[in-house]
Design brief:
- The chain is of the alpha/beta class and about 220 residues long.
- The protein is built from eight helices and eight strands.
- The longest helix is centred in the N-terminal third of the chain and has 15 residues, at about 15-30.
- The model has no long low-confidence stretch (mean pLDDT about 95).
């Protein structure tokens, strides 16, 4: 890793410029794009200036980008992106897939995405995703190997007709006041790990978590 690249926090190694070139080529030819990466823009581990420039790119090419898939955070979560010029306008969404590693305080998990298929005029959007987990508490207590099982389907669990960015944004709005809905999200966030789920998430915790999911310009303050 070349840490000297971070002297240019705007676009180290011209990565964003490369992305713009690829997206413009796709727009010119009418192609649709999926972006797959590790550290999601908007994460605390991603350069803030870099993330803000990424948000602008997503806003510019929102009609071309049909899916964004990241990991890194180990939790089952997402980042919702907004137009920096009008933060009421939702422009994109990054699904954050759960990690197989249980670090730190999680059950192991993985996810299967269902994407609109390869046919004429396909939307190429994410139609649904299913998350599978293994209960480590049960495995440790029984002494048997972990058993993998389906934890949930996004459409079924949240009652969503579509998994578009605006649908998730509306769901986050509902979670601000709906305790049952937020608890369900909190359980899936930890991949149903008993101890982590039981700790709960009070009002300041909920506000902070939902703020982090919404990758806007505001600073999310974590209250201990």
């Amino acid at each position: 890793m070349n840490w000297w690249l971070l002297i240019n926090m705007t676009d180290p190694d011209n990565e964003l410029q490369w992305l713009i070139t690829e997206l413009q080529d796709a727009e010119n030819t009418g192609d649709k794009v999926h972006i797959i990466g590790h550290i999601p823009p908007g994460s605390g581990d991603c350069l803030r200036v870099w993330s803000q420039n990424y948000f602008r790119i997503i806003a510019r090419y929102e009609d071309t980008i049909r899916g964004q898939y990241y990991g890194h955070e180990h939790s089952d979560s997402m980042h919702i992106y907004y137009d920096p010029a009008n933060e009421a306008h939702v422009t994109g969404l990054s699904f954050l897939g759960p990690s197989v590693t249980p670090y730190q305080g999680f059950n192991p998990g993985y996810r299967i995405y269902t994407i609109d298929g390869n046919y004429a005029n396909s939307s190429w959007v994410t139609l649904d995703h299913e998350t599978y987990i293994a209960n480590l508490t049960e495995a440790n207590d029984s002494g048997n190997p972990p058993k993998w099982f389906k934890e949930y389907s996004a459409k079924e669990a949240y009652g969503l007709e579509q998994l578009l960015p605006a649908d998730w944004d509306a769901l986050m709005n509902d979670m601000e006041t709906d305790d049952v809905l937020f608890h369900k999200f909190w359980q899936y966030y930890w991949k149903s790990e008993d101890k982590s789920v039981s700790v709960g998430c009070d009002a300041p915790c909920r506000k902070y978590l939902l703020c982090r999911i919404r990758a806007r310009s505001e600073n999310c303050v974590k209250v201990q």
